[in-house]
Design goal:
Blueprint: E1 7-15, E2 18-26, H1 39-54, E3 58-65, E4 69-71, H2 85-103, E5 109-113, E6 116-118, H3 120-126, E7 130-134, E8 140-141, H4 155-163, H5 165-177, H6 185-191, E9 196-198, H7 203-216, H8 231-246, H9 252-263, H10 270-284, H11 288-301, E10 322-325, H12 329-342, E11 346-349, H13 353-372, H14 378-386, E12 388-391, E13 402-405, H15 411-422, E14 430-433, H16 440-444, E15 453-458, E16 467-472, H17 478-490, E17 494-499, H18 506-522, H19 527-535, H20 543-550, H21 552-565, H22 574-581, E18 588-589, E19 596-597, H23 599-604, H24 615-635, H25 642-653, H26 662-668, H27 671-676
Parallel strand pairs: 2-3, 3-5, 4-6, 5-7, 6-8, 7-9, 10-11, 10-13, 11-12, 13-14, 14-15, 16-17
Antiparallel strand pairs: 1-2, 15-16, 18-19
């Protein structure tokens, strides 16, 4: 059943200064289905403007959304059906034609941004003369470049003319490519997107009263003209940022920069700027990157919210107290996450007071930082730290409902931790492990109740990466699994069910990629050339930079796990072993364009053969190997569907949205037909 179209519903208010039109965008659904703009919405906007233009008694117009939602922009689900430049250009022109009618009204217009305003939802507000925003609005922004598009209904042109190129580029380019970062109502006001910031309780009334004062002339909105004096510098910096993020693999952010630059020619007619947006949409909306971005968006926003494998009709257990074994960096991040999302007592245990003090200090410091940034009140931060309990005694775990271990990545250590925990916890308490590669079944094999053990593989940094691999052991029961999925939802992680298989899914794929990179280097390729070849995929980080982030010792441990299972496909790299034994943490000295090869690395790899490689040759080898490995993962039922692979790689490994998930990418660029004589989506 198709979603209800968004309509522009017009009502009238007889104010003390005369008749005011109040136009409400509403699709008839609750806040869980935001207003979006498809063809019927634009028709409805034209109809509303016809009424307003014909009513000579009107003194002003206020535009608002339904409860909690202003508007979320264009209906992206139409994008896959657009295949020509002219189709894309016409979509841009249709949006401009409808929204510009607001700009052309002869009466004062005010957009009251009462809820989330994204993409076209923010753009339509820019056509009004004035804007107010509620302090309660959680999400405002332009996600288009994240999806392979540009703000094409006025956003790329009107934004820089309102707030200047620096802030416009922040909204349109920087935020979009920083994992689609959004701003709240307060930040929107501070940036100059809105003229007034009001409390949520009185927002509608305050906005209407402001419009009344504007109509009668008792209040004037003053704005500084946009500062375009440093335009060239801002444009150059934005280009450098985009190069670092996508390495030329996605055209949309580059096009957005040029549109912002063009709009900053303040003598240019706005209509000309809109025409350039139309052309950009015509080029981009039919591109592979845009269609892939929309696929990714639909994957994350819809499919991932109903994970495959979650037991139906099984009631999860309530969680009133949480235990964490370990006080290292990962354990401390988990403590902070559970405190913030659950707000229940969390007990953190380690074997030495000095380790415990360090972990507690980390959590306290992070809570204080959140309070200083006003993301938490000081009272809330103090309360959360107060309910964090540090202990050396297992007895403090007796009333826990959920216990997760984050100790040293060694089977015997983890088995011992679980055995000690089982002696004190209740029969209903769930035991979870944050192992990155070890068998859940083996880990629980010596317990009296292995059915309550489940894998909970987080990705580092925990606060940023949204993926959670939930691993079902051979004896994990449905109540445990249902509770695991409920916990994932509560802590705002996207969960996928993964088979108990060596290194699970994401780490297996990344280990294969890194193993192949080392093999190519061993054959004579330059480290930086291998990294550059991989970056042509638009990856957020080159493989050998990722190695430094993960740590060579951790990477080698996962490689050993995979090698034991599949020795031919995951050979032990002796140079990597030497790197770990020498305690060398990074392939390079420095980071970014000026980095150089670490002399210790050059010494370890001295004597290898010298061979010239082309980037295309390296990339072909990497992608061929990944195609085979992902196919094996699917054949082995590590996950249920290629879309689970895509979800996992996007949310756990930073695979670019504009490449649409790794299986779709391998299909589209021809590797699955070439290597496997099929496509993943036929599975």
């Amino acid at each position: 059943m198709a979603d209800s179209p968004t309509l522009f519903l017009t009502n009238y208010f007889q104010s003390r200064v005369g008749k005011i039109a109040i136009v409400t965008m509403d699709n008839g659904e609750d806040y869980k289905k935001p207003n979006t703009f498809a063809e019927k919405a634009l028709v409805s906007l034209h109809e509303a403007m016809n009424k307003i233009e014909a009513d000579k008694e009107l003194k002003g117009m206020m535009l608002c959304g339904k409860h909690y939602i202003f508007a979320a922009g264009a209906d992206l689900m139409q994008v896959p059906f657009i295949n020509t430049f002219e189709q894309g250009r016409q979509i841009g022109a249709a949006g401009h034609a409808a929204m510009k009618r607001i700009m052309d009204l002869k009466i004062p217009t005010l957009a009251a941004i009462n809820g989330a305003a994204l993409g076209g939802g923010l753009e339509i507000a820019l056509y009004c003369n004035y804007r107010t925003v509620s302090k309660a609005v959680p999400a405002i922004g332009f996600p288009e470049c994240f999806l392979g598009l540009i703000p094409g209904w006025g956003g790329s042109s009107l934004t820089p003319r309102l707030i200047g190129p620096e802030k416009a580029l922040e909204l349109i380019v920087y935020n979009a490519l920083n994992q689609n970062r959004l701003i709240d109502g307060t930040k929107a006001f501070q940036m100059g997107l809105a003229d007034r910031l009001f409390d949520a309780v009185e927002f509608f009334d305050e906005s209407l009263a402001l419009l009344e004062r504007i109509i009668e002339g008792s209040e004037t909105i003053e704005r500084k003209p946009p500062d375009v004096s440093k335009l060239s510098s801002h444009v150059q910096q934005a280009h450098s940022f985009v190069d670092m993020k996508v390495h030329g693999a996605a055209p949309a952010p580059y096009r957005a920069i040029e549109l912002v630059k063009g709009a900053c020619d303040l003598g240019r007619a706005i209509g000309e700027c809109f025409e350039e947006e139309d052309k950009a949409l015509g080029d981009l909306i039919k591109s592979r990157q845009c269609k892939a971005g929309v696929y990714s968006f639909d994957l994350i926003q819809r499919r991932a919210k109903k994970p495959v494998g979650r037991p139906e009709d099984v009631k999860p257990r309530p969680i009133k107290k949480i235990g964490i074994v370990g006080a290292g960096l990962m354990a401390s991040q988990l403590a902070l996450l559970f405190l913030r999302r659950y707000g229940v007592p969390v007990v953190m245990k380690d074997i030495k007071q000095e380790f415990l003090d360090k972990g507690l200090g980390y959590v306290k410091g992070e809570l204080q930082a959140l309070a200083s940034k006003q993301r938490l009140t000081q009272a809330k931060a103090d309360h959360l730290f107060h309910i964090l309990i540090g202990t050396l005694d297992w007895q403090d775990f007796t009333d826990c409902d959920f216990v997760i271990e984050a100790v040293f990545e060694e089977m015997t250590v983890k088995q011992d931790v679980f055995a000690q925990a089982e002696e004190v916890i209740s029969p209903e308490c769930i035991l979870a492990t944050n192992t990155s590669s070890l068998s859940i079944t083996e880990m629980s094999s010596k317990l009296k109740h292995p059915e309550r053990v489940v894998g909970f593989h987080f990705f580092n940094p925990v606060a940023i990466l949204p993926l959670l691999e939930i691993i079902k052991g051979e004896k994990t029961d449905d109540v445990t699994l249902a509770t695991a999925f409920a916990i994932a939802k509560k802590i705002k992680k996207t969960a996928i069910l993964v088979k108990d298989s060596p290194a699970f899914l994401v780490n297996r794929i990344l280990t294969k990629l890194l193993s192949d990179c080392f093999e190519i280097v061993d054959e004579g390729a330059d480290f930086m050339l291998v990294d550059d070849a991989a970056l042509d995929l638009g990856l957020p980080m080159a493989p050998f930079d990722l190695l430094a982030l993960v740590g060579p010792a951790v990477a080698f441990h996962v490689l050993e796990t995979c090698h034991r299972a599949w020795p031919e496909r995951f050979p032990i790299n002796e140079h990597l072993r030497q790197l770990v034994n020498a305690k060398v943490g990074s392939i390079y000295q420095g980071f970014g364009p000026g980095k150089t090869l670490n002399p210790k690395v050059a010494e370890i790899w001295a004597g290898r053969p010298q061979k010239e490689f082309l980037k295309e040759e390296i990339l072909d080898k990497l992608l061929t190997s990944l195609t085979v490995e992902i196919d094996l993962c699917l054949r082995e039922k590590v996950v249920a569907d290629p879309k689970d692979v895509d979800t996992a790689m996007i949310l756990g490994a930073g695979w670019p949205f504009f490449n649409g998930g790794i299986t779709l990418y391998l299909d589209v660029v021809g590797y699955t037909p070439k290597v496997l004589q099929k496509v993943f989506f036929s599975i």
